[in-house]
Design brief:
Helices cover 67% and strands 12% of the residues. By secondary structure, it is mainly alpha-helical. It has a two-stranded antiparallel sheet. Helix 1 packs across helix 2.
């Protein structure tokens, strides 16, 4: 079984789709964290943002794996 999504005849790896969804969620959360001042208590913002993306990507992949047949 291949893990690809068919978009109008173009096969796209499912990890790419999940990565784009996770990136959108990360951008949204970064804006929220910036507005509420959460980054004042974060030691290294770039490391935190990278870890946030990895966590969101893992969560998105886990949720999508549970939903897809």
């Amino acid at each position: 079984m291949t893990h690809e999504i068919d978009l109008y005849g173009v096969f796209v790896p499912d990890l790419l789709v999940w990565g784009l969804v996770a990136y959108g969620l990360a951008v949204l959360l970064r804006r929220v964290f910036g507005r509420i001042g959460f980054y004042r208590v974060v030691w290294h913002r770039a490391l935190f943002d990278a870890a946030l993306y990895v966590i969101l990507l893992g969560g998105t992949a886990a949720v999508a794996r549970g939903l897809l047949p």
